[in-house]
Amino acid sequence: MRPANQPSSRTTSCPTRPVRAASGASGGAERPRRATPPHPRPAPEGPIRERNQPIAGRGASANFVEALARGLDVIGAFGDSHTSMSLAEIAAATNLARPTTHRLLATLIELGFVRQSGSLFELTPRILDLGYAFVSSQGLWQVARPHLEALVGRTGESSSMAQLSGSDIVYTARVAVPKIIALRVEIGTRFPAQVTSQGKVLLAALAPDALRRTLAEPSSSRVVIAARDPADLARELDGVRARGWALADEELAPGVRSIAAPVSDSTGTVLAAVNVTVHAAETPTALLLERHLPELLATAAAISADWGRLDARPYVEVPEH
């Protein structure tokens, strides 16, 4: 891996490969009433606002649009444990007044991002358009997809691509196989980087100062991890940096074992990490490394090569008129 201001180093032994771093219904509809559901609804697990803190009211710029921030807060209130919520619950989660929350929900319903059933509200599949817009804009998924699908076809195991977001990884692509594992993973899922194989690859690609800043950021994942000795983590990342791949052996959850390798651009800057995930009871570590690591390294190299060719293409900026 190659920090921005440090020279890179290479070795050619395999499978060792150094990582180079660098409202109601729609318009005019009635306000939703707090009708009692026909059967008691279980309370959501944990505090409603356990992950994302409201962003409304925190803008420092004169150009900050408070209404947009409030709408994003309403969307962010939903999650795995809060798939459907009442008006009162959403207002509490966002620290917004109920009339304001009602108007925002009405707007989101009219736009197709939220639907209402009785007194409860939930997101619609259209909300995925917002997340996929980011993935599509990166272009990396279009390049990686055929390679990940081929990797899964050869290994029979799930494979994902993730990028760093603060001290977490965020899954930006996934090709799954129908196997039961201890954790549910989908595009947008966040896990603490230091306990995942992909996270270790991405952390190892950072320059020392950037690594310290990243690890100091609080995790936004629902997974709670024990504090780890910084010196021990630093030694492990040194090893990842030297050999070009990382292993996470049931660190994230019991039964989850994975290996990951970096995806780089034409300059060697690490953009993402791809992995192979197995069930620990089915695939011992030695077998994972012997059977799947060469396939993973070849896949990561192929994605990097394809992205490098795409990234290196000349382009011409067209001035706006």
- Per CATH, the architecture of the largest domain is 2-Layer Sandwich
Given helix and strand content, the structural type is alpha+beta
**Count of extended strands:** 9
The fold-level CATH name of the largest domain is Beta-Lactamase
Percentage of residues in DSSP E strands:
15-25%
Number of domains: 2
Identify the CATH class of the largest domain. Alpha Beta
Question: Could you give the order of strands across the largest sheet?
Answer: 6-5-4-9-8-7
- How many helices does DSSP assign? 9
Which regions are unreliable across 5 or more consecutive residues at pLDDT < 50? 2-14, 19-51
| SSE topology string | HEHHEEHHEEEHHHEEEH
Mean pLDDT: 81
Spell out the blueprint of helices and strands.
Elements: H1 66-76, E1 84-86, H2 87-94, H3 98-111, E2 114-117, E3 120-123, H4 128-138, H5 140-155, E4 158-165, E5 168-175, E6 190-192, H6 197-204, H7 208-216, H8 230-243, E7 246-249, E8 256-264, E9 270-279, H9 285-311
Antiparallel strand pairs: 1-3, 2-3, 4-5, 4-9, 5-6, 7-8, 8-9
Helix pairs in contact: 2-3, 5-9, 6-8
Biased composition (Pro residues): 35-45
Biased composition (Polar residues): 1-15
Protein name: Glycerol operon regulatory protein
